[in-house]
Amino acid sequence: MPAAQSLEDLAYAAYLQEHGEPLEPDGNYTEVHLSDVELEDVRAGHATFIESAFSGVVLGGGSLERSRFSDVWISRNRWVGLRLADTEWLDVSVLDSSLAGIEAYGSRLRRVVFQRCKIDTLNLRGSTIADVEFDGCDLTELDCGGATLTNVTFAGSTLRRARFTGAKLKKVDFRGARELDVAAGAESLRGAIVDDRQLLELAPVLAASLGIEVK
User: Fold this and answer.
1) Closest CA relative to residue 60, chosen from 87, 80, 78
2) Are 1 and 133 in contact (CB under 8 A)?
3) Is 162 a domain residue?
4) What is the pTM (predicted TM-score) of this model?
5) What is the CA radius of gyration of the chain?
6) Total domains present in the chain
7) pLDDT tens for residues 66-100?
């Protein structure tokens, strides 16, 4: 799915209103634009964001647990140590952003694009992830343990120490990934698509998961 590359490309750009107030629990944010703000220890669980944009936003710690993001555009953001457990993401684009130490287990992501992002320690354990693109991203410690992944791609991305223990994969395409390093859960890669080079790189962890000793 093509992601809008600028704010002006959004279908709802003309309706956006600048939002300078703190985010609140159970808040309903429709057609709002958070721009170039830094929020520490945000407490806005159960909030709803619809046709909204985050540009140049820094979120340091806190929680947006059980929030909903629908048709949301996120660009040049830096989110660190943020709790996003049990959130719902639909038609969301995340561009040129840095995410670190994000707890998003139990979430539901559908038609989400991560493009040119640096993602370090993203916990998606037990999540449902469908029609999601990681395009040109640098991912370290991606944990999809127990998650269900359907039609997920990693074109031009680097995966280091990824974990898929107990995950269920269907049409998960790793072809085009610059690096594929699986630290745990190689036995759960049934349903993945890899190229010849990646298969050779995965051979040691696949053998270990099957109890095969290679001498």
Assistant:
1) 80
2) yes
3) yes
4) 0.91
5) 18
6) 1
7) 999 999 999 999 999 999 999 999 999 999 999 99
